[in-house]
Specification:
Elements: E1 31-32, E2 38-39
Antiparallel strand pairs: 1-2
Length: about 70
């Protein structure tokens, strides 16, 4: 697995990673907000449900983002 925040494959808790840089030392594109959600630079929460077998049920919400971290 690869962490969506730091893009590292090293063993760590992917669900709570708050790294500000990626594995190479460059700035991370996304971060976690106060609620622990992965957000893009604009502050929009990213959806990870689209990667799951059942997919994402939210298609009408314009602020619901499907993009790579």
């Amino acid at each position: 697995s690869v962490c969506a925040i730091c893009l590292s494959t090293r063993a760590h808790d992917f669900h709570s990673c708050t790294a500000v840089t990626i594995w190479s030392g460059e700035p991370a594109r996304c971060m976690r907000d106060a609620k622990g959600r992965i957000v893009n630079p604009a502050g929009d929460a990213l959806c990870t449900d689209w990667q799951r077998r059942q997919g994402c049920p939210q298609t009408a919400n314009r602020r619901h983002r499907h993009e790579c971290s």
